[in-house]
Amino acid sequence: MENKNLAYPIQRKWILGVFIIIPLVLAVGLYDYFLNDQAWQPYFSLYSLLLPLYLLFFELPHILASFAGFADGEYARHYRKHLLIGLPVMLLLFGVFAWHYYLFAIGLYLAITIYHVIRQQTGIAHMFGVPKGRWHSVWSWSIVIGGALLFMQLVESRIDQALAWLWPVGTSILAIGFIAGVGLIKETKSRLGVWYVVATLAMVLTSFLFVQLQYAFLAVLVVRFVHEVTAFMFYITHEMNRNAETIKNKLYKWLPLLPVSLVIVIPLFAIFGGAVVRNSISDPKILYMVVMSIALIHYYMESIMWKRDSLHRQYVQVV
């Protein structure tokens, strides 16, 4: 059960503020497409996702920050079965697959990323007063499946033309998701909940637009930014609440446990870790395999860590 007397809650308006990335990305992409003769398009390709600054700030930071929590002995013991058995098996299977089918592995990874990101977004919707039920289920799964298929489309032309069905099928499923989103909006009594559903749909629509315009980097960036910043809010708040009265995490025994120190130290720790990973590997293929593997570890653990009534959920409250 979630603790309702936490020292550091998360404000809903902070989460909504993260969606400011949508008009910014639209302004850049549409300016280039319509007014700049698409001069920047080569720099916003799929392979731009290997740029050091992108990896540093939009792939690795909150992932590495989430790993810091396992310096807490209680958490390490609680999740040890997943850490010692589940993760090694998953990584071995993915590593073998990615080594032999690299491009398809990237497409699969992008699809899994969309699942991870969108399921986080639609799950957080309940914290905004968006009701559970049929409309929410159809909305959530439609934009997950439709979005995943469209992101796999980013690499399908390099794999097999037989996968051309991804576009019509993905688009049709996304359309169902938008219809369900309208139904969900009508059912939602919370004003902030309505805005949250609208913002999530706008994020998906923006990403869809840039997939079609062949600005893969912008399509990925808009969803990654929302996910990364929101996730940082949750992890930093969790660490502050978890260690507010007694320092349980060994990493923080060397730090004065103040809100300011954690807000600064956790991102710095993550950015430093990301820089080490990026600068220690020169081969782009190996680099991205490492990044994908690290991300998949995170996705696997997050699917367990943030379940209702989990240890992590006890220390996060949205108000």
State the helix count.
13
Helix percentage: over 70%
Distance between the termini: 16 Å
Along the chain, the helix and strand elements come as HHHHHHHHHHHHH
- pLDDT averaged over residues: 84
Give the overall silhouette.
globular
Structural class: mainly alpha
Number of strands: 0
Strand content: under 5%
Gyration radius, in Å: 20 Å
Main sheet attributes: strand count, strand direction, barrel closure: none
What does this molecule look like?
The structure is a single chain. This protein is mainly α and 319 residues long. 70% of the residues lie in helices and 0% in strands. It contains 13 helices and no strands.
Sum this structure up briefly:
This protein has helices spanning 12-17, 21-35, 52-58, 61-68, 73-78, 80-100, 102-124, 134-156, 166-187, 191-212, 216-242, 259-280, 284-305.
In terms of topology, how is this protein built?
Elements: H1 12-17, H2 21-35, H3 52-58, H4 61-68, H5 73-78, H6 80-100, H7 102-124, H8 134-156, H9 166-187, H10 191-212, H11 216-242, H12 259-280, H13 284-305
Helix pairs in contact: 2-10, 2-11, 3-12, 4-11, 4-12, 6-7, 6-13, 7-8, 7-13, 8-9, 9-10, 10-11, 11-12
Notable characteristics:
about 325 residues; mainly alpha; globular; 13 helices; about 0% strand
